[in-house]
Amino acid sequence: MGREFVDIFDEWVDTYDDSVNGKDEEYREVFAGYDDILQKVADEARGLTVEFGVGTGNLTEKLLAKGLTVLGVEPNKAMRDRTQARFPASKIVDGDFTSFPLPEQPIDTFVSTYAFHHLTDEEKAEAAAHYASILASNGQVVFADTMFKDDEARINQWEKVGKQGYKNLLEDLQREYYTTLPIMKKIFEEAGFAISFTPLNDYVWLIHARKQN
């Protein structure tokens, strides 16, 4: 993950929850149903769960409420400190999708929301292969993130956002590495997963990848 993406959250830590809860009109559609999206990810998690990009701890809270053992991975210190203060008994460590300290016990589930797009498609493939090599038998990856159904859908969404006058959102969609479902399917299948996709709003899809043994 690029350093610039990590540093952005130094400025966002105090307003992040306002953004995801719909107070930023420009990003309201991206975060539509935010609490339900996090709950759907938490509902699928089981066993020892590694969460990437804990942010302010909103998904962490739902995972802990389910009684799961959670290892939180967060590259931004301000976000890491915020979540650690909320859940002092939890383990929140420095790391990212491809570099993080491994727990002693087998990992059953990897989870993440609104973060996998920080990786290029090549980095996503590297991450998927790494997960397959360290997940427990029948382990799984449950991510929710903005993706496009295909290249045509990507262009259509760019045009829609441009007409809405949302310049910052359009810049984000064109700058970061939001991929398509066919590419994501190929990445995880080549790593040895069976994968399914569920639309959660006009931007976000649920990725459920199950390790094939």
Work out the number of β strands.
Answer: 7
List unreliable stretches of 5+ residues.
1-6
| CATH topology descriptor | Rossmann fold
Taken in chain order, the helices and strands follow as HHHEHEHEEHEHHHEE
- Calculate Rg over CA atoms: 16 Å
Query: How many discrete domains?
Result: 1
Question: What does this protein structure show overall?
Answer:
A 7-stranded mixed sheet has the order 3-2-1-4-5-7-6, with helices on both faces. The chain has helices at 3-12, 16-20, 34-44, 58-65, 77-86, 121-134, 151-164, 167-175, 181-190; strands at residues 49-52, 70-73, 91-93, 107-113, 135-146, 193-199, 204-211. The protein is an alpha/beta fold. The chain has one domain: Rossmann fold, CATH 3.40.50. The protein has 9 helices and 7 strands, in the order H-H-H-E-H-E-H-E-E-H-E-H-H-H-E-E. The longest helix has 14 residues, at 121-134. The radius of gyration is 16 Å and the shape is globular. 38% of the residues are buried. Helix 6 packs parallel to helix 9 (181-190). It starts with a helix and ends with a strand.
Quick synopsis:
The chain has helices at 3-12, 16-20, 34-44, 58-65, 77-86, 121-134, 151-164, 167-175, 181-190; strands spanning 49-52, 70-73, 91-93, 107-113, 135-146, 193-199, 204-211. The chain is an alpha/beta fold and 213 residues long.
Structural descriptors:
Rossmann fold, seven-stranded mixed β-sheet, 213 residues
Could you outline the blueprint of secondary structure elements for this entry?
Layout: H1 3-12, H2 16-20, H3 34-44, E1 49-52, H4 58-65, E2 70-73, H5 77-86, E3 91-93, E4 107-113, H6 121-134, E5 135-146, H7 151-164, H8 167-175, H9 181-190, E6 193-199, E7 204-211
Parallel strand pairs: 1-2, 1-4, 2-3, 4-5
Antiparallel strand pairs: 5-7, 6-7
Helix pairs in contact: 3-4, 6-9
